[in-house]
Design goal:
single chain; five-stranded mixed β-sheet; globular; SH3 type barrels; 2 domains; binds zinc ion; alpha+beta; about 30% helix
Amino acid sequence: MLRWSLLSMVLVGVLLGAAPTARAFHPPLVVLQAGHWRSAELPDEFSRLRGNTGAAAGGVREVDLNVDIAHRAAEYLRAWGNEAYVLPATVPPNYRADAFVAIHADGHANRAARGFKVATSYRPWIASDLLVRELADEYARRTGLPRDWRITHNMRGYYAFNSGLYQHTIAEDTPAAILEMGFLTNPTDRAYLVTHTDHVAWAIALGIARFLATRPAEGWPPPPSFPRDDIVEVLHDNVPLFDGPGREFNRVDRAARKERYAVVERRPGWAKLFFWSGAERWIEDFQTRPITIP
Ligand SMILES: [Zn+2]
């Protein structure tokens, strides 16, 4: 009887402890996404990104560099006892891993712009924040490239992070980061990236390995949940977003065709969109259609 209750206490403890936490793989499973790779094959929901091969300068195409470095980094990670895969632009639905890192390089009209960036989604979650920190620290230390802090919306709103709104994304409980390795349009960054390709890949792999070593034995605390009850898709380009439910409010942003949002409140003719920042953004109903994500 005592043994049984002890056993059930342990079982309950295991269930309670395991259920709400992010799953961990053994050996750790790392997924590197080579940015823009095979972007022509992107599914309908991301058709706006099809055919994009990213930045290009000095005879270097971003996509080619991304593919090369992603494969080299995956090789290092495998050599250190992890499971590691390279994915193209298309992520299988609800893809789950211990770490997901999208690999990109920047371009800018201003050739003086340089440095690397690391970011994660707007959603606050300690696991992804730690991945960003370890990756950025190790990358800076090993490459000596300067850090560029001008994180863009395209990075924090990266399509593959948008679980809950799209199908072909990583799972909600997968720690994720996007790395811009440096500017191809900057001669110094570009020269470094093309002549130190293997070293750059090693730096990325080290950062990811350092993150994996920080995983708590009981798993990560669960990520904050995303509202999924009411999802809409924007029907047109340049649809204005207002800071209140009426045209008399300020136009504060725009939405693009096929972008999806979660709705958290409805008023006649208006829908309030969900943003992790808590920003107040309303859209007119007729500019959207409701969708269901399988
Ligand atoms: Zn890119």
